[in-house]
């Protein structure tokens, strides 16, 4: 790394641009920077207490320095004034007072820094609100890529109020103290000559996005409309900086948009009386009566108009239930454990018997609220589940699942109509193939079924000759209960259906669907078959809810460059109205780079939906390293803001980020998604390679020698597979990727069942090309790209051996590689501390190979060889 005296013109240009955007008073990229201007707030006078005694109970004499640990809000700096560092202490007037002084420091790579404060005797130092330990006048800290606020909280003391010893010392060195005040300065030094930019802190100063923002930023997990549409419940969740999960349910008035109440309980709406309900143990309830047995479960209602609580039922069964629409009964889903395994030596009944809980079976029961009687509704060996309850509370739409391992699909689902009046059962579909779920129409004359394109003998298929549809490209089917005739509703509709609800208020069907790289909200008129894309401000709808008795809807969502927002909508007017904007509050101090759409036409004539992210303060004359990301499984890489591969965070670190949705992704139509089936990466790899090359051809700001790629799960397989096909990438990361289709097929919990999707009607003994020739492990000698494997040791979906075996092969071949295992984590890295370390591992690997900075990796994992 060059010293400051030998800085490149490019670095100077970047420094000037960054400082101009921050309104900085001084900016330089050097090993040591002296802060010239700070934002000052104060003085805030503090009085010397009355000395009832000369020492406290510990025998300590009084010192004003203890005042430094008293609370003082840093928001006071928002109204502070800009002060030259040389004049910071000039107006202190030797009074007992607290002061705040701050500046910002920006860095695009992880930096170890030393902050030195000279001329102050009593102070505390904070970086981004966290106190930093000071030794003498120096503090060591690690700055993650971002814009950081440094606050100095210091004390000026009146010499008249100083202790005797302090006073004597003050008299002896008063001249030197005055000189010290005049010599006050703050310097920051970056290790290894890392680039820093320093500026004054102000209310308008913005910082870049970081991984803590992604993980800890609050979001709206779900929304529920009251039956009359006058209230909504919004579930708000977040993680604090200590890794603790939090959740709260807010009750909002839809007329005023105000929060009426907040509940820690998991509250839901009753189906028609516009009351909330929740359950709790009787011993935990503040309104529990005397004599309640410990562990009894109470059903409690809340009136949103006056917040009155009432015990609706004093002792109900434990378990998950759903109200019947008449609110007279609860339909329970209960579980019965099968024969337990010997924990030391046990047999495995079927492949899925390796999974915890496989031997447990679900059944249905009805609890009558008036009598307290629990009536079993189903009995048997197979899992039985509730799909829906008819509006008149008479019929249950139930399903039964069973396995058939000798033919695809290996899971069959039957649909039945159970009459609660006489317990008669009518079979609607026996051992149906490729079915998912079902629900009643509002009039109870039809049912809406979700399933794969091959459901109902393939009446919903829309693929080319010779193609097998993707099982996860979900379609809608409408069955008339009178004659059992089925009509495909989405055969010519390209978006991939997700959450569905049939409105009782207007008779329309509402659903979310993967629509290219977005998650949009649609309305379907079941009579005309007409689809309407509802105009919502967000690119990704996360949750929606429609009122049962009113044409009202609520939904939450986010987009590529904003966090969660909450909306309501009249389904008649179809106009979105903003209720609450979390994003505006959470991102007001954050500066994001641009996100732009970019499409590419592949060799087959398909238009690939891509997008790219630019670093903040982007300079088109520069050359940037680039990170390429693509889908895992079959779902598109949507325009979600808070994702596990946070594109804006990569961009904030100085990368251009290219997101490619190649062949095989759902949300682009059945023909497109069918290209995931029986290809094992063929075509998909070519899409990623050719689109990356074309993007570089069209955008001169990409450094073609510094391109990295990353993917997870099936995307992790794609990362590995790509390196057997090209030397385009300078670094690659595979998280929980498949290296050998044969071992994954048999070992993963969902190996053989997922292969029904990706390797339809093919097996390791029938198609060596797909299972062996297309496996990265059997092509390991073709890999030359530095390849990092990251994997949870408790991954049951893609077992950790998938990374171990290819890592071992590359080690034996002498190729650049590394493997980082996350102890105790499954397919997703959930634990807060482990997720931070996992994410930092990814950042460090890219920094090493794409930014020529191996210091972060070395600090985390040491030298290459032990």
What does this structure look like?
This protein has 866 residues and is α+β, with helices and mostly antiparallel strands. The chain is built from 16 helices and 50 strands. The chain has an eight-stranded mixed beta sheet with strand order 43-44-46-45-47-48-49-50, sandwiched between helices. Strands 2, 3, 4, 6, 7, 10 and 12 form a seven-stranded antiparallel beta sheet that branches. The relative contact order is 0.07. The N terminus is likely disordered.
The end-to-end distance, rounded to whole angstroms, is: 26 Å
Low-confidence stretches: 1-30, 162-181, 285-293
Number of strands: 50
If helices are DSSP runs of H or I spanning 4 or more residues, what is the number of helices? 16
Computed over alpha carbons, the radius of gyration is 32 Å
Main beta sheet, described?
Answer: 8 strands, mixed
Oligomer: single chain
Helix content: 10-25%
- The dominant shape is globular
Spatial order of the strands forming the largest sheet = 43-44-46-45-47-48-49-50
Q: Tell me the strand percentage band.
A: 35-45%
Whole-number mean pLDDT? 90
Global structural class = alpha+beta
């Amino acid at each position: 790394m060059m010293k400051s005296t030998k800085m490149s013109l490019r670095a100077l240009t970047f420094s000037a641009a960054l400082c101009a955007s921050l309104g900085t008073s001084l900016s330089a990229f050097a090993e040591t920077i002296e802060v010239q201007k700070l934002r000052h707030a104060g003085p805030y006078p503090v009085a010397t207490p009355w000395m009832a005694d000369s020492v406290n109970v510990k025998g300590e004499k009084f010192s004003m320095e203890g005042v430094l640990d008293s609370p003082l809000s840093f928001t006071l700096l928002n109204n502070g004034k800009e002060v030259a560092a040389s004049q910071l202490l000039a107006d202190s007037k030797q009074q007992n007072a607290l002061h705040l002084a701050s500046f910002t420091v920006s860095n695009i790579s992880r930096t170890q820094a030393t902050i030195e404060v000279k001329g102050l005797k009593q102070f505390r130092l904070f970086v981004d609100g966290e106190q930093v330990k000071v030794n003498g006048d120096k503090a060591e800290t690690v700055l993650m890529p971002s814009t950081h606020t440094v606050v100095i909280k210091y004390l000026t003391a009146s010499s008249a109020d100083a202790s005797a010893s302090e006073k004597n010392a003050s008299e002896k060195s008063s001249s030197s103290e005055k000189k010290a005040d005049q010599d006050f300065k703050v310097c920051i030094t970056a290790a290894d000559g890392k680039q820093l930019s320093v500026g004054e802190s102000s209310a308008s100063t913005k910082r870049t996005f970081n991984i803590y923002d992604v993980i800890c930023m609050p979001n709206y997990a779900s929304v529920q409309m009251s039956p009359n549409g006058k209230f909504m419940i919004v579930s708000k969740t977040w993680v604090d900086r200590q890794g603790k999960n939090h959740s709260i349910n807010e009750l909002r008035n839809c007329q005023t948009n105000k929060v009426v109440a907040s509940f820690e309980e998991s509250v839901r709406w009753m189906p028609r009386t516009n009351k909330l309900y929740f359950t709790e143990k009787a011993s935990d309830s503040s309104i529990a009566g005397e004599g309640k047995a410990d562990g009894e479960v109470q059903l409690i209602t809340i009136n949103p108009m006056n917040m009155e609580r009432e015990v609706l039922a004093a002792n109900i069964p434990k378990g998950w239930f759903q109200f019947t629409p008449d609110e007279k009964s609860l339909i329970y889903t209960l579980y019965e454990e099968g024969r337990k395994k010997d924990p030391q030596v046990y047999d495995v009944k079927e492949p899925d018997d390796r999974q915890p809980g496989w031997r447990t079976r679900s059944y249905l029961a009805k609890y009558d609220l008036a009598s307290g009687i629990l009536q079993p509704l189903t009995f048997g060996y197979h899992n039985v589940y509730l799909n829906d309850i008819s509006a008149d509370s008479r019929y249950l739409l139930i399903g039964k699942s069973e396995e058939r391992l000798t033919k695809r699909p290996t899971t069959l689902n039957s649909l039945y109509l159970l009459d609660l009046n006489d317990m008669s059962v009518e079979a609607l579909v026996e051992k149906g193939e490729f079915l998912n779920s079902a629900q009643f129409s509002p009039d109870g004359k039809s049912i809406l079924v979700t399933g794969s394109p091959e459901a109902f003998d393939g009446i919903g298929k829309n693929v080319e000759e010779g193609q097998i549809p993707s099982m996860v490209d979900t379609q809608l089917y409408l069955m008339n209960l009178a004659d059992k005739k089925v009509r495909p509703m989405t055969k010519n509709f390209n978006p991939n259906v997700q959450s569905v609800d049939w409105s009782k208020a207007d008779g329309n069907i509402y659903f979310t669907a993967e629509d290219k790289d977005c998650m949009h909200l649609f309305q379907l008129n079941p009579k005309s078959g007409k689809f309407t894309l509802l105009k919502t401000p967000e690119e990704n709808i996360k949750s929606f809810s429609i009122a049962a008795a009113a044409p009202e809807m609520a939904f939450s969502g986010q987009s590529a460059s904003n966090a969660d927002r909450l909306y309501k909508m009249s389904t008649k007017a179809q106009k979105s109205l903003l209720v609450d904007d979390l994003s505006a509050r959470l991102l007001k101090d954050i500066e994001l780079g641009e996100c732009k759409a970019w499409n590419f036409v592949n060799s087959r004539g398909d238009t690939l939906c891509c997008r790219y992210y630019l670093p903040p303060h982007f300079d088109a004359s520069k050359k940037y390293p680039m990170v390429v990301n693509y889908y895992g499984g079959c779902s598109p890489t949507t325009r979600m803001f808070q994702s596990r591969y946070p594109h804006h965070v990569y961009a904030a670190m100085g990368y251009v980020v290219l997101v490619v949705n190649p062949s095989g992704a759902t949300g682009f139509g059945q023909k497109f998604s069918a290209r995931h089936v029986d290809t094992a990466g063929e075509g998909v790899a070519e899409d990623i390679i050719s689109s990356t090359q074309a993007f570089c051809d069209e955008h001169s700001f990409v450094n073609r020698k510094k391109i990295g790629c990353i993917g997870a799960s099936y995307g992790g397989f794609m990362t590995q597979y790509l390196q057997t096909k090209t030397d385009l990438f300078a670094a690659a990361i595979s998280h929980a990727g498949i290296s050998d289709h044969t071992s994954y097929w048999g070992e993963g919990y969902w190996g053989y069942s997922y292969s029904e999707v990706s390797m339809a009607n093919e097996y390791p003994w029938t198609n060596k090309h797909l299972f062996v020739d297309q496996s990265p492990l059997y092509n390991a000698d073709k890999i030359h790209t530095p390849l990092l494997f990251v994997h949870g040791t408790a991954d049951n979906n893609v077992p950790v051996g998938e990374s171990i075996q290819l890592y071992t092969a590359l080690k034996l071949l002498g190729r650049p590689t590394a493997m980082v295992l996350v102890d105790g984590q499954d397919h997703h890295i959930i634990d807060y501390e482990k997720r931070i370390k996992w994410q930092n591992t990814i950042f460090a690997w890219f920094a090493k190979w794409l930014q020529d900075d191996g210091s972060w990796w070395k600090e985390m994992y040491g030298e290459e060889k032990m």
